[in-house]
Amino acid sequence: MEHNICTLGIDIGSTTVKIAILDQTNQLLFSDYKRHFANIRETLSDLLKQAYAELGNITLYPMITG
């Protein structure tokens, strides 16, 4: 994938971490969620590694809710 600027949405809830990555035209490129079992950092890291494996090197601007 080309070097793009994308939006990273992060939602950290009481039981799950969700992420979504949108391109510059707001098209969904990647989304997934996992239960965090009170280990939020590791779960978020795992999801970001999964997105990187699928999308490659992209520039992300995060938006966080939760």
Summarize the structure.
This protein is α+β, with helices and mostly antiparallel strands and 66 residues long. The protein has 1 helix and 4 strands; from the N terminus they run E-E-E-H-E.
Q: Descriptors for this entry?
A:
66 residues, 4 strands, 4-stranded mixed β-sheet, 1 helix, globular, alpha+beta
Task: Give the SSE map.
Blueprint: E1 5-12, E2 16-22, E3 28-35, H1 40-55, E4 59-65
Parallel strand pairs: 1-4
Antiparallel strand pairs: 1-2, 2-3
What can you see in these coordinates?
The chain has 66 residues and is an alpha+beta fold. It is 24% helix and 45% strand. It has one helix and four strands. The protein has one helix at residues 40-55, and strands at residues 5-12, 16-22, 28-35, 59-65. Strands 3-2-1-4 form a four-stranded mixed β-sheet, covered by helices on one side. The N and C termini lie far apart (30 Å). The model has no long low-confidence stretch (mean pLDDT 93).
Order of helices and strands: EEEHE
- Give the strand order, joined by hyphens, for the main sheet: 3-2-1-4
Count of beta strands: 4
**Structural class, please?**
alpha+beta
> What value does the Rg take, in angstroms?
12 Å
Report how far apart the termini are: 30 Å
Tally of DSSP helical segments: 1
Sheet with most strands:
4 strands, mixed
- Please tell me the overall pLDDT: 93
